[in-house]
Design a protein that fits this description.
The chain is of the alpha/beta class. Helices cover 35% and strands 17% of the residues.
Length: 537
Amino acid sequence: MTIKHLHDVLVIGSGAAGLSLALELAPSVRVAVLSKASLMAGSTSQAQGGIAAVLDSTDSVADHTADTLNAGAGLCHDDAVRFTVSNSSENIHWLIEQGVPFTRSNDVTATTDDYHLTKEGGHSHRRVIHAADATGQAVASTLIERAREAKNLDLFENRLAIDLVTHRHTGSDKPRCKGAYVLNEEADQVELFQARCVVLATGGASKVYLYTSNQDGASGDGIAMAWRAGCRVANMEFNQFHPTCLYHPQAKSFLITEAVRGEGGKLRLPDGQRFMERFDPRLELAPRDIVARAMDHEMKRLGVDCVYLDISHKSKEFILEHFPTVHERCLSFGIDITRDPIPVVPAAHYTCGGVMVDHQGRTDLEGLYAIGETSFTGLHGANRLASNSLLECVVYGRSAAEDIRIELAQADTSLPNLPEWDESQVTDSDEDVIIAHNWEELRRFMWDYVGIVRTNKRLQRAKHRVDMLLQEIDEFYSNYKVSNDLIELRNLAVVADLIIRSAQQRKESRGLHYTLDYPKTLTTAVDTLLVPTNSPL
């Protein structure tokens, strides 16, 4: 018998977006928050740099908006940018009220409530508020602490959502999301979480690439589930590659914060020569797509495995004060950043596209919301401006919470009977090696053919391979008991297909999408929109 959980709101994902929404709702409604691993796992806790917001008297909503639009290469939605930026200050103060320990300023003349602001690539002002170089960890731990204290808020760890439960499961004519089937990894059984509203806050899909800064999550779960449920997705071809991921055989996926370049870090070739002046007048502070492409170009030109990020010209005291986490982690690999340059490579980092939503996080399916990196709000356009991501999480998380509060007050309070999970016809797999092989093949051809620089031929090869994989994975999924690896592989294959199809549709180079076959940017900027055959629209 399937274990059933009943709540008013089901939040799938325990990062900044999901917890911001849950904390806003918990005082008045019953909320469940699912985390696929521990509550601290995922992208939020790994974020180092900070949160961009208008907090200084010398800055303005107009300037922050202009910087965001410029980084987005013509594809940002003006209304989404202005909505997010104009709400930035209020949401930062909400985080401060929750207890996030942002770094204080040593400048006695500071006019920003004594908080230190740093500057990152693409920004015209110091506007990034941070907690040293571990902002995400500070935000995540604080929100988790508040969530553990909250009434009406149930936290479930090691729960991996498999699929959404919709009207199609009950035979209803009215399209609506009603819950989700979820794998309890500790008990190795599937549970049914039923709710009046469901929120996807599962993060992005950068794990679809071989090299990524998000090894612990970012497997595109929410995007894939929403697509299968009939929701449109947009701009999936825009995958941001963070320029500076630590290159070391034992480092796995440690990100070197953007703030290192913001505070004067210089990119150098193996011989010590700087190279960014050949690519952009903003040098190391150019937007991420430009820096990543420049690094990729130099590495391929010279046939080297990495380039170097050097902050050693700053004083040891300055480095230890501003980058204690980076210093400690690099030192564990024998790299003293107070004296040595840091070996770095670009790595898949952020998904700018996602499930289409409005300012309240509403998707195409009634009762289903998407927030954070899972969603496509129009904020990021063709390239995300540094440190706008956590801002988007909190702004849209709290905005969606307000809409859900209204929705629950007006909606039918009854919860219909939903079918239990049926695995009566499946068996335990004795061929898990197939999953491992497919996983490796998928991530490698995505890196090789759908990476920083693309061509028509590369995309065609990738599409051919993903079509075969989708068929093989679907057959495997239908016959064997679900597992974490199988669920993630299934979702990544769906997301890979969406990325490839989106990239094939864009006949230009813009922002994060660069193709040798169409190197010019068209005069008219148009979103790439994919519509599933089962769309409720």
